[in-house]
Amino acid sequence: MRRTRLSGLAALVAFAPAIALGATPSPSPKATPRLVTVQQKIKPQLPTSPLHATYTVETNKLGQVVRVRSVEPSKNPAFDAMTYGNSLQAFIRHPDGTAVAGVYKLIYDYSPQTKKVRRDVELLQAGGVNPDAPGAVTVELQKDAKTQAADRAKQDAAKKAAASKLPDFNQIVSPSPKP
Known about the structure:
Layout: H1 2-23, H2 38-41, E1 51-59, E2 65-72, H3 77-88, E3 102-111, E4 116-126, H4 136-164, H5 169-173
Antiparallel strand pairs: 1-2, 1-3, 3-4
């Protein structure tokens, strides 16, 4: 019996530091704040071969691209989509700010060595287009404004319809006297 007490006491002495450490909570690690930018998270896969796309566009008297007449695409659909959008948003003007309404060629070349796109402009024909035509961006903004106005009108009509189903506010707040 004495042996069991001694072995129990020895076990208690052996595990005492572990029991004492287990009773105190361990300190939580402190996170060091670090600024992570989007560029650090996402690295785009850039093309490894040169790309070339050509757009024939019409411009108005302000130098705004009115429409794209023809496209000679590259082999990369993403590059074509970006350059097409850029060609629709382009302004083609002289350094002094004047513009010639006409037909132009926009040439986009991507270089995998520099990872840059170069845009060149060539005048194919002066005139032959509607100089008073609105630019493609202006037309899209007008369409968007009409769509937003129609959406606002629908929301207002829905609010008005919902409000017409409610009882009059004065009837809720001050009850009418009973005869």
